[in-house]
Amino acid sequence: MKSKASLKFRILAALVLIVSVTSFLFAGGVLLIKSQLEARVFGDMVAEQLRVLTAQLDDGTYHENTLFTGWEFHIGEKSTNIAPEFAELEPGSHHTVSMGGSVYQVEVGEWNGSPVYLTYDITEWEAQEHAVLRMLLYGLFLVLIVAIVMGLSATRAILAPVQNLSRRLTDIEPGQTGLRIADDYVGTEIGQIASSFDKYQERLEKFVERERSFTAAASHELRTPLTVMMGALDVLSADTHSPASQRALERINRACTEMLAFIEATLLLSREESSQIYQDSPIDLVALIDQCLEDYADQIADNSVLIERNYVGSPQLFLPVNLVQITISNLLRNAIEHTHGGNIRIHLRDKEFSVSDTGEGIPADKLSQVFERSYSSKVGGTGLGLNIVRRICDRLHWTITLDSTLGHGTIVTVIFQQKERDGSTSL
């Protein structure tokens, strides 16, 4: 699982971790050195004193009053008050031996075959050591707090150029071209990012320009012959008396009309999001739906489909008719093509349009793909129909949902965001 922590958090965590680990290692090293040094100093001191005392025993000059405060000297075989904690010790030096709430440095030796014990009370030293340890621990927490505060300050300083670049990129308007920012960051670490952005921006501008040139050229080259064809169809329709020929001409005219609408819709979608596409007068949506149904009358009859209309209201859509026509006609055509001997119900309300059918339905594992450009349930289909419907809905901020059950049918719902005359929008 990839980490989603921000760069600021990672920098702060790294600084705090480095300072904390370094401080704890230093403190641990100091404590270890102190402990080793203390054991060595006390051990040597008590061992030397035991050597002096045993020498005094040898020459008969030993006297208990010669011991300093805190020192005790015991001979194992002659003494009955040797503490069990001392009696169990092996010969040698023993640091921090606890007994009865006190701490001792103990040296165990031998004199004339009997064990001898010299103890030195280091309780006060140990208490001071613990006090130092507490102070050191408090210091470590203080260092941690200081590290966090300094880390926050450092991250702000480190990320300031990145944030400045981010604001600079955010302020770039979609229509701005030829803008380059690398020169503003020469000699800084951000300069490499800015340079890469400039190269990407240059490639993107060339790509957009190629797309615009192609769209403009293609739309011009396609619309011109379509207009000529539709004009010729009008002439032929006026002189044609055969019903079969008339129906054929009507199909050709309808196909040309749909193709022209598709081209116009594609051009509108290719404009920037901020481009004005709204109109002053609303569309007669009821008439548009009825016109689409009339255009598909032959296919409806061939599939033995029963159309049910439920017009409760009509949304006020101040939009180019081609955009709305492409959306309505694609949804109706899909329902008609996949319904044989069933029903199609069309619901129209003030803010909603829906088409439900009792047709083939869509497998559950394919529902997420129906709006993709490459997906089509028809053999040889391109999948462009529903894809352009989704693009139109996204552009106009409409909500489109599709629910389907294999073998039981499909329902598609579009919820409109309406444009008012004053330019405001409402759901």
UniProtKB/TrEMBL annotation:
One of its GO terms (cellular component) is plasma membrane. It is found in: Membrane. Its EC number is 2.7.13.3. Keywords: Kinase, Membrane, Phosphoprotein, Transferase, Transmembrane, Transmembrane helix, Two-component regulatory system. Pfam families: HAMP, HATPase_c, HisKA. Transmembrane segments: none annotated. Its main location: membrane. The keyword Phosphoprotein applies. It catalyses: ATP + protein L-histidine = ADP + protein N-phospho-L-histidine. GO terms for molecular function: phosphorelay sensor kinase activity. It is an enzyme of class 2 (transferase). PANTHER family: HISTIDINE KINASE (PTHR45436:SF16), SENSOR HISTIDINE KINASE YKOH (PTHR45436). This is histidine kinase.
